[in-house]
Design a protein that fits this description.
Blueprint (H helix, E strand, L loop, with lengths): L1 E5 L3 E6 L4 E7 L4 E2 L27 E4 L2 E4 L12 E5 L3 E7 L2 H6 L5 E9 L2 E9 L6 E3 L1 E2 L3 E3 L12 E4 L5 E7 L5 E9 L4 E3 L10 E4 L5 E5 L5 E6 L4 E5 L8 E8 L18 E3 L4 E6 L1
Antiparallel strand pairs: 1-2, 2-3, 3-4, 5-6, 7-8, 8-9, 9-10, 10-24, 11-23, 12-22, 13-22, 14-17, 14-19, 15-16, 18-21, 19-20, 21-22
Length: 288
Amino acid sequence: MRYVLENDTLRVEIDSFGAELKSVKRKSDDKEYMWYADKKYWGRTSPVLFPFVGNCRNKEYRYGGKTYAIGQHGFARDMEHTMESRTEDTIWFSLHSNEETMEKYPFAFVLKIGYNLTGNELKVMWKVENPDTKTLYFSIGAHPAFLCPINGEQDKTGYRLRFGNLTDRLHHHGNTPDGMAVMTDEELELEDGEAVITPGFFDKCTYMVEGAQTGEVSILDRDGEAYVTVRFDAPLFALWSPEGKEAPFLCIEPWYGRCDAVDFEGSLAERPYENALAAGGSFDAEYA
């Protein structure tokens, strides 16, 4: 079911399936900012990544002496969430563990996803609760896809990415075709904190950026005007658009967790950036 938040500036639509943000429109001219999920390129708009971000090596992980199979980005994006509460400017959804989830992920959890609309800012809020008596291990991440180009151009060549508080370079690493992290340090050269999107900019890899190098990424059109900015306090983030497709969107993805590296052989608890939530505890994070 679709739910709407709106004010004088924006109209926002969220689907209870996946608690997924589907539309953000500027009301003055009906300008849409979000990707419209054309399966020709990518059939999603802004899925939540939970309880895994990215792929596990060989699509499996180890916990408690057992090996479990798991698909990319976990399963929360493909489940119906319950609308829990709603006010004029805020809506909350929840997802609870059940027999189906416990078979592939042996943890009890409550995942809550909230949206708050204030002026021209949409805040996305996450709360993970551990109702069990054992430690809950999880990752969580965002995957919002923004239209790029947004002004009717044929492609996004000449658009720019601006990185807050950076000047001359962004350190990142890439991935293999099956989504494993390649931990070689690479550099994206910047000019005054900006990178120009050139043909094939996203063909090499996903840009995975660690080290909390910035907490703000903007997309600028060909006139140099920033039309969307994502702000976050996550330990890492990614930039992605489908390789080799010149897809008319790009994703800015704050992450609390990431895919396995190509040589990772550890347990679930040993995965880099894995969150360990004590019994009865809660985890809170947000981006805007």
